[in-house]
Design brief:
314 residues; alpha/beta; TIM Barrel; 8-stranded parallel β-barrel; two-stranded antiparallel sheet; 12 helices; 10 strands
């Protein structure tokens, strides 16, 4: 059964649990069944080690509200990291331990990168050689299998990547077929795909593939959804300020559905066609929280409309 959710923005929390009770209560009042939190917003992991006391504090707050939970790993977690790969492994396992202790059902992970975002502006926009890319992919597969086997109760959702100029393609999973290949290589029942509608819109425009074809290709393996809107216009990696990007419709805007130009029927339809037993997260930037009830209402109507049309087509 589809469960509607929204994210609690990590920059809003900024390491403090003080705002969580209000945010969780808001999710309940809006009729949502789940929330998604980033461990990097909670300060529960420090240098690869999980803070058990703080994890218990979070679990107690969540238990008071009766919501399902998905968890987002730090954006900079990179299982193809050129440096300190052991630390990235430790962070991954700490995220999974956090999920296990808080009843987090899904951990969203950004797959490995050929050029890490933290190296943008440091390294040139050049890809490693084919042999190095294969070796790093094999190492990522090994680490994901190890993690999935160690925490079989948590589903790991590998997310399709957003693009950045001039570095794209800076990772394989800007391309849907490469994301599917990664999941098939890992070959674990608790490893699937987080389909991000905004990222898919941008990479399809940049790389010239059809969004609906990509959605059909991935649909069978999608276990989690990130739903948000944009205009499919990729910005430079240096463009970070939304107030300057929004007038030109550039970048990964994370706007409420309906404010951009994504064809959600084409993207979500293949996933919802045969029923979807997962969470759909309306993943918004913090700048949209002031009108959250309106945005969640529009999100709910969108998901219900897509589901109804898919049911009628069966």
């Amino acid at each position: 059964m589809l469960t509607l959710s929204t994210n609690i923005h990590d920059a809003r929390l900024d390491g403090s649990l003080a705002k969580l009770p209000g945010d969780l209560s808001c999710a309940v009042e809006l009729g949502l069944g789940a929330v998604e939190v980033g461990v990097h917003g909670l300060d529960v992991i420090r240098c690869g080690r999980l803070d058990l006391r703080r994890t218990r504090e979070f679990r107690n707050l969540l238990d008071d509200h009766g919501l399902r939970l998905s968890v987002h790993a730090p954006d900079t977690l990179d299982l193809q990291a050129r440096r300190e790969l052991d630390l990235h492994r430790s962070v991954l396992h700490a995220c999974l331990e956090f999920c296990a202790l808080t009843r987090g059902e899904v951990l969203v992970v950004h797959p490995g990168r050929w050029v890490a975002e933290t190296d943008f502006g440091v390294l040139p926009p050049a890809l490693p050689g084919e042999q190095e890319r294969l070796e790093r992919l094999e190492e990522e597969v090994r680490l994901l299998r190890e993690a999935a086997d160690a925490f079989p109760e948590v589903r790991i959702a590998l997310e399709n990547a957003r693009p950045y100029l001039p570095y794209s393609p800076y990772c394989a999973v800007e391309f849907p077929d490469r994301l599917l290949d990664l999941v098939l290589r890992v070959d674990r029942v608790n490893v699937g795909i987080c389909l991000d509608t905004g990222h898919l819109h941008m990479t399809s425009r940049l790389h010239g593939y059809v969004e609906s074809d990509a959605a059909r290709l991935l649909a069978e393996h999608v276990i989690h959804l990130h739903v948000h809107d944009n205009f499919g216009r990729t910005g430079n990696w240096t463009e970070k300020t939304q107030t300057h990007q929004v007038p030109f419709g550039r970048g990964d805007m994370h706007m409420p559905p309906g404010l951009g130009d994504i064809d959600f029927e084409a993207v979500l339809g293949p996933v919802l066609r045969d029923g979807f037993d997962g969470m759909a997260v309306c993943e918004l930037r913090g700048r949209y929280l002031g009108d959250l009830p309106d945005h969640i209402g529009a999100f709910r109507r969108l998901m219900e409309a897509v589901q109804l049309r898919q049911t009628a087509r069966r």
